[in-house]
Amino acid sequence: MFTLTRESALPPAELWQRLAALGDHADSVPLTTTIADPGAPAPGWRFTARTALGPLRFDDSMFVEEWEPPRRWRVRKTGFLKGWAEAVVTPTAGGSRLTWTEELWFELPGLTGVTRRVGDVLGPLIFGPVVNRLARADR
Fold first, then answer.
1. What pLDDT was estimated at residue 51?
2. Which fold, 2-135?
3. Which end of the chain is least crowded, N or C, by CB within 10 Å?
């Protein structure tokens, strides 16, 4: 499991608006697009982040498990990549704070523990730019 925390000059409502646009999060991940259910996110809403290079592709399928606007959401990963992610917006004196916590693993017999540790190391490298972009006031 890893946690990324970013302070932002954005007001909490604006940071939440960015955070709630789940389909836009892949904009910071190279070679990745999002396929989503119609409508706004809510519990049960499904989406897939698809990373592809030519004929090679990887789908990260998820659904919204908890949705508490304008403060918090939690998604569950349901494909070959398992895990969950939770994001929380907290008001601060200078704007807001975004706390993103995630746990990732591949469901491989006998190797799940190893893949969890790999997720703990690679997760911040992959999701750090997403969290940075969401919290940045100058974009």
1. 86
2. Alpha-D-Glucose-1,6-Bisphosphate; Chain A, domain 4 (3.30.530)
3. C
